[in-house]
Amino acid sequence: MNHNRSASSTAALTLGAIGVVYGDIGTSPLYALKQVFANGHVPLTPDNVFGVLSLVFWTLTVVVSVKYVVLILRADNNGEGGLIAMLALASQAVRDRPALRRRLLLVGIFGTAIFFGDGVITPAISVLGAVEGLQVAAPGLHTWIVPITLVVLTALFMFQRHGTERVGKLFGPVMTVWFIVIAILGLMHIGDNPAILKSLMPHYALLFLLTHPAVGFIALGSVVLCVTGAEALYADMGHFGKRPIRLAWFGMAMPALLLNYFGQGAMLLADPSKVGNPFFQMAPPWALYPLIALATCAAVIASQALITAAFSVAKQAIQLGYLPRLRIQHTSEKETGQIYLPFVNWGLFVGIVIAVVLFGSSDALGAAYGITVTIDMLITTTMTFFVVRYAWKYAWWLAALATGFFFIVDFTFLAANIVKVIDGGWFPLLIGAFMFTLMMTWKQGRKLMSKSLRDDAIDLGGFLESVFISPPTRVPGTAVFLVSDQGLTPNALLHNLKHNKVLHERNLFVTVKHHEVPWIADRVCAEMRALGNDCWEITLNFGFKNEPDVPTALARLREHGCSVDDMDTSYFLSRDIVIPTLGGGMAAWREKLFAGMHRNAAAAADFLRLPTNRVVELGSKVEI
């Protein structure tokens, strides 16, 4: 019975992985091979077709199958994956080397910022690539492609606030149908020209690169589009687990993708005139409109995966202190990971609309696509070296051997994409640079603000001793003072004593800390220290994937002798107003930017799940 239940669970997770993990990479046949040949930089000759297909096969094999599925999936952070999880793992491994740790954090945060550029380009190119099938079915509909794409994307982003709990169950079956269909389309054309399978031999790729080095280098910039979405393998590990992701790749996604790419190649050998849109040209006329509809559904699922990932990454960045608090809505009562961030949602939407209108076609967007993907791939490989060397304690030469080859491959793909910066690569890089500036400004601003507060603060222990020499009137109930730095007297307490001349029966001084691990168990979440006179200093520890729920965490302290009654508890917070000053720690424009971000950040009460009718906020000014 247990075996059957385990097999059933694995099958369900594998189906889910097909729908979520492989949505992005699964739609790459819509534009990848077309991007190689359609712009005219790579001549459409039989030798070039064999060479490019060989490159596609070995890129999928080396980058996805070997690097991500075999190596990277081993680098889990308490079962979690993704660039932030890898960054946390690597930075923890080198915590005794502060200078190296700072550099790794900088590189990792840059990679996280670049991800948002990818989050803009992927939905735009996927949906555009699907809707462009209308050009093949009815060339007269060409002018409707951009408007239809915008309608589909608008509907997708408007739907986000409802969550994907119900519709998400369709992702796996729809993508399974998609993979079966693209595999059948490929087989139909491979059957007409089985010689195309010779491209499996690596010497065709080598011959192509050696015979035409300049053309081959340009081709690499487009070939890498066949592995866009590979990072999702690692990022979604915590949702599905390693085994289902591996089964979904080797059992469904990889065979279907290869059959389709080789089918496109066989068709182009037979009829080079179909190079304009080889994917849709593979289908018989009667199947075009159903295929366009299926491709649009697959593109929407691929886009959904990126949008969901953007929500998750933004939340993790907030909890690690690299973004200000944003309003977070939970869209599922069962799954805590299903969240909706309105600001991120509509920010992505604006960026995607600009991309669709500015570039207008998947061909033009192909020039913008790839550079952010290759940067993140290179950063992941770099982080993996430090994990293998310092976390897993392997010898230096073995760590270099395990990651060096992949570093060379990733760097080569990045170099090939650098030439596309002028043609459109600047767009996602601009988005990434903007996000990186915001994240580093927020992190540095918080440090300056914390220093300013510490400089003006009073030691909590000494202050309480002086207060209880001649204690004020004690009133019934519990006061919870949220403090950013442990051991310092909160301004809210000073104001309460100064204006109300009273002290609560019980006083809790709570510091919330977020750590570079994904999860911290409830039983070890809280640390407490008695200060005497019914006062306690409490530290609540959360991982970057935990939900920071302060009332629930405090309720668990009852077993430690500190009873907190919800109906008898008030939460005191300090609402700080940041005042930029000349000669501070940042440039004037960055201080003004930080002040604006701080002013518009979501309320701490909402972020920490505090009951709104029991929160007291007291303002103070902080100069940085």
Distance between the termini: 63 Å
Count of DSSP strands: 8
Overall helicity: 55-70%
Radius of gyration: 27 Å
Strand order of the largest sheet: 5-6-4-3-7-8
Give the amount of beta strand, in percent.
Answer: 5-15%
SSE-based structural type:
alpha/beta
What is the approximate shape?
A: elongated
Helices, by number, come to: 26
Instruction: Extract low-pLDDT stretches.
Output: none
Largest sheet: 6 strands, mixed
Give the rounded overall mean pLDDT: 88
Which features characterize this protein?
alpha/beta, two-stranded antiparallel ribbon, single chain, 26 helices, 624 residues, elongated, 10% strand, six-stranded mixed sheet
What would you say this structure looks like, in words?
- The protein has 624 residues and is of the alpha/beta class.
- Helices cover 61% and strands 10% of the residues.
- It is built from 26 helices and 8 strands.
- The protein has helices at 2-20, 23-26, 32-37, 46-71, 83-93, 98-131, 133-137, 145-159, 171-192, 202-211, 213-223, 231-235, 237-240, 242-270, 278-281, 288-319, 342-359, 362-368, 371-391, 396-418, 421-456, 460-467, 491-500, 550-555, 588-600, 604-607, and strands at residues 329-330, 339-340, 473-482, 502-515, 526-532, 535-543, 569-579, 615-623.
- The chain has a 6-stranded mixed sheet. A two-stranded antiparallel ribbon has the order 1-2.
- The model has no long low-confidence stretch (mean pLDDT 88).
